[in-house]
Structure formats: structure tokens, C-alpha cells
Write a structure and sequence with these properties.
6-stranded parallel β-sheet; 16 helices; single chain; about 15% strand; 2 domains; 3-stranded antiparallel β-sheet; alpha/beta; formyl-coa transferase, domain 3; about 400 residues; Rossmann fold
Length: about 400
């Protein structure tokens, strides 16, 4: 608390300052959760195998790090430990006992066999918050199923429903929704567990499943369970996207057919009575939109109307807008490497990415010294045995 705003409210610093997170996860579901905790001020230590997180190999690269990897690991410290090595597993156990949170997304049972399971650690460290992310939960008939996001999309109804409603063949998603939604479910669960620990003195084991998260964030799940009928009023997947004369595109939210006369009048067309069929009405509107030279002109034509429209932009185009620049949406964590900042702001707390993503094993020595108090000889021994790299 170093200063106050004009109303006298103190500046609070990072919300999770002093919280240490041992991030044993890889790829997306766990690492993005760890990134969010780091943005909130936690010390997040990413533990990688000697082979490294597979997302390190995804191009493009800046200073040796893939930007896909950088996006979800910015702000963390990185160490390389071989968990298959007995001394390596014992080392991580010691670090876990000095941490507030352990985050992992191994298949259920893997860490238990290495002495790093939730029950094993909680027995020695009852204040620990241990968060396990998996595809289908820690127990049950699907616990050992492979759980990559595209597989969960297929099994949890996301792909089938989209295909059925669009009347198209099934196709995969562009984004790994199952991973991303699970990440933020895990963030919420961890923060709640930290609050409860402060009240009770006890941590807990959190079981966060991708299948659960995908259903929880499927706003049509309950509707579909009851039987998705023909009478629908919020078919957002059918909002029209049409091209302008310059090749850019606009999306029209709502049904332009229901407001056909207003669309025709706004775009300088000729009134038609009676209103043509839905397909013909949409074709007429599309023809009128295609004559508009650019989006600025399109907005001007509609400035006195209530129709909802937006330009279809890329992320790169959005980054150059006044909104993105003024809100400081992207952070350059390394020259040429920009990542989105945390999607929330605080007037009184410090929130946001603090550093680049780590290179493989970049902080191994410094973490072992600061967390466990190891000296040069002890670290050299661990290197000689292959426990750390």
C-alpha cells in the first residue's frame, strides 16, 4: 500500500502477491490457468520435462520461444526437472511442500505413482490447494480416456449440435474451447479454495474436468436435453455476414428479413410490396450491401437506424484500433512478442503480465536456491544425476 487515489483508497498491489504456484501442467488447459494466476501476481513456477512443453515447437518463434507457448506461459519462472528420475520427483515433492498451489493436468494416477499425488502431498501439507485438470475427472469409467480438446469437443456434444443447427456436416472447432474454458474454471476453483483456506486453515484437492467445463459453458445444453424444437428466437449462428464492395465483410445481428423495408430504405434500394420470400429478401439485401464501398460508408448509411452491425476484423486489425491502443490490450513481453493482457482491470490492484515466457530451464538454479535454499554443490549434484537440466 504505497499510495492512494483521490478518494483515499489505497493502492493494493498484486492480488496474489506471496502465493506460490507449482505449475506441472503442459499444452493449454493448465498453462493458461497458470498464466492467469501469474497475471494476478502469484509466483508461478513452470516445471517442464527435459523434452519441454510440446507447444514450444509451434511457430512462429521469437528469441527461440514459440508465440503459442509464450501466450500461455508469460510471466512464469521455468525449471526443467525429469520426473521419471527418482531424485527429480523427490525435488518436485519438496518444492510442492513449499508452495500454496499445485496445478497439474497429467492423466489420473501418473503423479500418484511418483509420490506427487494429491493425497500424498496433502497428508504432509494440509494447507495445499492441489488442482487436477483432466478430460473426464479423476475417477470413473472415463478417467483414463485420452482428453485432447478436439476429442472432448466430439464427445461432449459441441460438434454435433453445431452441425445439426446449421444443417451442415460436422466439423472441428478452430479454437480449443474445452481447454480454454477448463482453464478459467480452474482459476475460479483455485481462487475459491484459497479464500476457503484462509477461513479454515485447510487446502483441498480440486477435480476439474474438461467434459464438465464444456457442458457448463454450453448455453444450449439444458435446452438440448429437453429437446431442441423448431421454434427458436436466438439463433446466433445464423446472423448474416455479407461482403462489401472493397472485399471486407460485415455481420448483421438480428433478422434482416424481418426488417426488410428498413434495410432497403437505409441502403438506397427501392421498396418492394409485398415483401419477398426470406431467401429473395436476403439476396436483395446482400446485393445492396455489396454496392457499399467500405465499412465507414456502411456505418454512415445506418447511423440513424437501430440495426446492429459490425465489421469483421482480424486480431491484427483489432490491435491497431483506438480501443486496443487506448486500453493497452496487448503487452510486448519481448521485442516482437506481443500477448493479450489480462481481460480485467483494477483501479487499485496491480494486474497484468509481468515478464516473458521462460526459456527451457531458464530459472532452474535461481528457483532451487530461492525455494529450497540449495547451494551450488547440491545443484551440481542434481545435474550430474539427470534430475534437473
Amino acid at each position: 500500500m504505497t499510495s492512494s487515489d483521490p478518494a483515499g483508497h489505497p493502492q493494493l498491489g498484486p492480488p496474489l502477491a506471496g502465493i506460490r504456484v507449482l505449475d506441472l501442467s503442459q499444452v493449454m488447459s493448465g498453462p493458461l490457468c497458470g498464466r492467469a494466476l501469474a497475471d494476478l501476481g502469484a509466483e508461478v513456477i513452470k516445471v517442464e520435462s527435459p523434452a519441454g512443453d510440446i507447444t514450444r515447437t509451434v511457430p512462429p518463434f521469437v528469441d527461440g520461444n514459440g508465440l503459442y507457448f509464450t501466450h500461455v506461459n508469460a510471466g512464469k519462472r521455468g525449471i526443467t526437472v525429469d520426473l521419471r528420475n527418482a531424485e527429480g520427483a523427490a525435488l518436485v515433492r519438496r518444492m510442492a511442500l513449499q508452495s500454496d498451489v499445485v496445478l497439474e493436468n497429467f492423466r489420473p494416477g501418473v503423479l500418484q505413482r511418483r509420490g506427487l499425488g494429491a493425497d500424498q502431498l496433502l497428508a504432509e501439507h494440509p494447507r495445499l490447494v492441489y488442482c487436477s485438470i483432466s478430460g473426464w475427472g479423476q475417477q470413473g469409467p472415463w478417467a483414463q480416456r485420452r482428453a485432447y480438446a478436439p476429442l472432448v469437443h466430439a464427445q461432449a456434444g459441441r460438434i454435433e449440435l453445431a452441425a445439426r443447427l446449421r444443417g451442415e456436416p460436422p466439423r472441428q472447432e478452430v479454437h480449443v474451447h474445452a481447454d480454454i474454458y477448463t482453464s478459467f474454471m480452474a482459476v475460479s476453483a483455485i481462487l475459491a479454495a484459497i479464500v476457503q483456506r484462509e477461513r479454515t486453515g485447510f487446502g483441498q484437492h480440486l477435480d476439474v474436468a474438461m467434459g464438465d467445463a464444456l457442458l457448463y459453458t454450453d448455453e444450449w445444453a439444458s435446452t438440448d436435453l429437453a429437446g431442441y424444437g423448431p421454434d427458436r428466437v436466438m439463433d446466433i449462428w445464423n446472423h448474416v455476414i455479407l461482403p462489401l464492395a472493397d472485399g471486407s465483410s460485415v455481420t448483421l445481428v438480428g433478422s434482416p428479413v424481418r426488417m426488410f423495408d428498413r434495410w432497403v430504405a437505409a441502403l438506397g434500394g427501392t421498396a418492394i410490396n409485398p415483401t419477398p420470400s426470406d431467401d429473395d429478401a436476403l439476396a436483395i439485401i446482400a446485393t445492396l450491401v455489396a454496392k457499399v464501398p467500405d465499412y465507414q460508408t456502411f456505418e454512415t448509411l445506418l447511423e440513424n437506424e437501430t440495426m446492429l452491425v459490425a465489421e469483421v476484423r482480424s486480431v491484427a486489425e483489432l490491435a491497431e484500433t483506438d480501443w486496443a491502443i487506448e486500453r493497452n490490450v496487448f503487452a510486448e513481453v519481448h521485442p516482437g512478442a506481443r500477448v493479450p493482457r489480462a481481460p480485467f482491470r483494477s483501479r487499485h490492484a496491480t494486474i497484468g503480465v509481468a515478464a516473458d515466457a521462460p526459456h527451457p530451464g531458464e530459472h532452474t538454479d535461481s528457483v532451487l536456491r530461492s525455494v529450497l535454499g540449495l547451494d551450488d554443490a547440491a545443484i551440481a549434484h542434481l545435474r550430474s544425476t539427470g534430475a534437473v537440466r
